[in-house]
Amino acid sequence: ELGADVIMFDNMRPDEIREAISSLEARGLRERVLLEASGGITLDNVSEYAASGVDVISVGAITHHAVWLDFSLRIV
């Protein structure tokens, strides 16, 4: 109602997200915002989050244990 463009559901379970989306729909606000799920999402449970009704899913777990490479770039 105050003009948000994006709502991030951080560290919420899929059932909690569905409940929040239902509340937005009941107020006629669902189509006004982009909905993102983040936090605690893994490749094992991503399908549950996809089924919750969000538009975007952030999966940081795929990079948490990545091997890092340290390099620099010189611009001349």
Short key terms for the protein model shown above:
about 80 residues; alpha/beta; TIM Barrel; three-stranded parallel beta sheet; 3 helices
Overall shape: it is flat
Spatially, the strands of the biggest sheet line up as 1-2-3
| Beta-strand segment tally | 3
Structural domains: how many: 1
CATH topology label: TIM Barrel
Q: Proportion of β residues?
A: 15-25%
The ordered string of helix (H) and strand (E) elements is EHEHEH
Distance between the termini: 51 Å
CATH superfamily grouping? Aldolase class I
Question: How would you sum up the major sheet?
Answer: 3 strands, parallel
CATH architecture label name: Alpha-Beta Barrel
Q: What structural class do helix, strand and pairing data support? A: alpha/beta
Q: Return the CATH class.
A: Alpha Beta
DSSP helix fraction: 25-40%
Q: How many whole angstroms does the radius of gyration measure?
A: 17 Å
Q: List segments where confidence is low: pLDDT < 50 over at least 5 consecutive residues.
A: none
**Mean pLDDT value:** 90
Number of helices: 3
Keywords: Glycosyltransferase, Transferase
GO biological process, one term: quinolinate catabolic process
Domain Quinolinate phosphoribosyl transferase C-terminal: 2-74
Family: Belongs to the NadC/ModD family.
